[in-house]
């Protein structure tokens, strides 16, 4: 296999004194020998168009028995071609005879065209000779093959570069690439011509059938000098990697409220592109759209959004990616959970303050969902031991935006041993009425709550505030006891206190 082609000029030298005549009545010569192609390559057929002329000064026709082309000089006789029985040439007429030959090796060739004839008038033999010098050399356009990295079972690409270093343009150019253990999916390129010192590139596509080394051979066929067809080849060796399948799916819940979706990231860790990638999701409690990706290159990640229609607040979802890798159909799945998060009210920051016989309950109606909650109302639930009290038996909060809060205050009276007060919260989300009940622990009361101011009609109070009453009562009791003792000593029968 030749990796370089020398492009050199070929020289044809023809003798300028072609005539060799025997006999007195025939005056004849080999007038021209046209060589085509003028710059042949080894193994290429060369045509020698020989013209024999019988001059008008001849007295008789020239009968042509044979015309041959031989090697000139050296030992032995090397004859490349001979044609016979060509008829006669009348005086003033010519005969054109093509001779062909090919040469296996490059180099300078000394040749001779010989005409064997006879004088029809005298019967004498006539021999005409014409020297031809031909230079045969390797003369092909230069070729180079490049191929991208390839993987077994995966289509890859390459190109053949053709540079025409000949001293003439080449026409009818055809480039064909073949492979050993390789299936060619695009192998042929045709161009009408390539100018002298010009170049072209011929793309090709191939798919290795297995991992390992494979040979690619490019053959170029072309025409020079209008009718001479040549061809040459070049081979290169490629090393194909085994196919590696590595695909990962990553899911993220996106959207708000009931407008929920899955964002799916497809990471191609394989050493070949993924094609016809179909991303889908299935669930008993939700339905999803599907998304088609035509191609994901190796070592890249693509993201898609699968919009969801949810029947329940929670959906267990199976996400699937079906794809083509090389000549195989593959599948990857992953599991995830999708939850819808509508507006939801929770009571936070609760505090309980005792005001005489009432409890003041304050806090925040907090929206822990992702949509607004409207018409929020906080009420004290009436039970056997808890009664809503003034001034706020219930509190209309109104609208609580998503991820926001609004403060409230409600009042209750309790009887008996009560440890908690029930509060009911009602609100609207997506035009649906929601109702929740919260038990507020009375133990939430702090020292400051216990030290709040008293009502005027309260029956109890602080022990320090009752101390003067206790002292006055004690003194009165001592006065009464003293009077009784005194009268007893006097023997009084009637005792009044």
Helices and strands in order:
Blueprint: E1 12-14, E2 28-36, E3 45-54, E4 62-71, E5 79-89, E6 93-102, E7 107-119, E8 125-136, E9 142-147, E10 156-163, E11 170-179, E12 182-186, E13 188-194, E14 199-208, E15 212-224, E16 228-240, E17 247-256, E18 259-268, E19 274-282, E20 286-288, E21 291-296, E22 300-310, E23 314-325, E24 328-339, E25 345-355, E26 358-367, E27 373-380, E28 386-389, E29 394-400, E30 405-414, E31 420-429, E32 432-441, H1 447-450, H2 467-490
Antiparallel strand pairs: 1-8, 2-3, 3-6, 4-5, 4-7, 7-8, 9-10, 10-14, 11-13, 11-15, 12-14, 15-16, 17-18, 18-22, 19-21, 19-23, 20-22, 23-24, 25-26, 26-30, 27-29, 27-31, 28-30, 31-32
Explain what this protein looks like in three dimensions.
It comes from Haloarcula quadrata. The chain crosses the membrane at residues 466-485. With 497 residues, this protein is mainly β. It contains 2 helices and 32 strands. It has helices at residues 447-450, 467-490; strands spanning 12-14, 28-36, 45-54, 62-71, 79-89, 93-102, 107-119, 125-136, 142-147, 156-163, 170-179, 182-186, 188-194, 199-208, 212-224, 228-240, 247-256, 259-268, 274-282, 286-288, 291-296, 300-310, 314-325, 328-339, 345-355, 358-367, 373-380, 386-389, 394-400, 405-414, 420-429, 432-441. The strands form 8 sheets. It has a 5-stranded antiparallel beta sheet with strand order 1-8-7-4-5, with no helix packed on it. A 4-stranded antiparallel beta sheet has the order 9-10-14-12, with no helix packed on it. A 4-stranded antiparallel beta sheet has the order 13-11-15-16, with no helix packed on it. The longest helix is centred in the last third of the chain and has 24 residues, at 467-490.
């Amino acid at each position: 296999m030749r990796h370089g082609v020398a492009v050199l000029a070929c020289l044809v030298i023809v003798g300028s004194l072609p005539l060799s005549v025997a006999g007195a009545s025939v005056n004849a010569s080999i007038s021209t020998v046209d060589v085509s192609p003028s710059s042949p390559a080894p193994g290429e057929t060369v045509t020698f168009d020989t013209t024999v002329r019988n001059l008008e000064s001849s007295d008789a026709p020239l009968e042509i028995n044979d015309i041959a082309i031989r090697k000139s000089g050296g030992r032995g006789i090397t004859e490349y071609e001979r044609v016979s029985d060509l008829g006669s040439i009348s005086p003033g007429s010519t005969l054109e005879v093509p001779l062909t030959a090919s040469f296996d090796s490059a180099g300078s060739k000394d040749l001779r065209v010989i005409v064997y004839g006879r004088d029809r008038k005298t019967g004498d033999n006539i021999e005409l000779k014409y020297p031809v010098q031909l230079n045969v050399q390797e003369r092909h356009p230069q070729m180079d093959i490049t191929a991208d990295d390839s993987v077994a079972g995966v289509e890859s690409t390459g190109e053949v570069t053709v540079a025409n270093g000949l001293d003439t343009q080449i026409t009818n150019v055809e480039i064909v690439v073949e492979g050993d253990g390789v299936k060619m999916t695009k192998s042929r390129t045709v161009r009408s011509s390539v100018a002298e010192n010009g170049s072209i590139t011929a793309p090709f596509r191939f798919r290795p059938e297995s991992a390992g080394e494979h040979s690619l051979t490019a053959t170029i066929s072309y025409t020079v000098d209008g009718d001479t067809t040549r061809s040459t080849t070049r081979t290169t060796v490629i090393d194909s990697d085994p196919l590696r399948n590595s695909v990962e799916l990553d899911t993220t819940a996106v959207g708000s409220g009931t407008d929920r979706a899955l964002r799916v990231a497809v990471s191609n860790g394989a050493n070949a592109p993924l094609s016809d990638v179909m991303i889908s999701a299935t669930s008993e409690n939700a339905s999803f759209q599907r998304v088609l990706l035509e191609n994901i290159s190796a070592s890249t990640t693509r993201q898609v959004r699968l919009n969801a229609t949810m029947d329940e607040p929670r959906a267990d979802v199976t996400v699937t990616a079906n794809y083509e890798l090389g000549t195989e159909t593959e599948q990857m799945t992953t599991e995830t959970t999708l939850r819808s998060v509508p507006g939801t009210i929770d009571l936070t920051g609760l505090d309980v303050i005792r005001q005489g016989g009432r409890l003041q309950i304050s806090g925040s109606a907090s929206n822990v969902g992702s949509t607004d909650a409207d018409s929020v109302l906080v009420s004290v639930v009436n039970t056997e031991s808890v009664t809503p009290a003034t001034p706020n038996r219930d509190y209309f909060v109104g609208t609580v935006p998503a991820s926001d809060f609004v403060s409230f205050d409600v009042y209750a009276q309790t009887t008996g041993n009560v440890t908690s007060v029930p509060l009911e919260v009602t609100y609207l989300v997506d035009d649906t009425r929601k109702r929740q009940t919260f038990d507020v622990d009375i133990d939430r009361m702090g020292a400051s709550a216990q030290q709040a101011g008293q009502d005027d009609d309260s029956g109890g109070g602080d022990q320090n505030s009752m101390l003067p009453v206790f002292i006055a009562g004690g003194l009165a009791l001592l006065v009464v006891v003293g009077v009784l003792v005194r009268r007893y000593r006097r023997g009084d029968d009637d005792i009044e206190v």
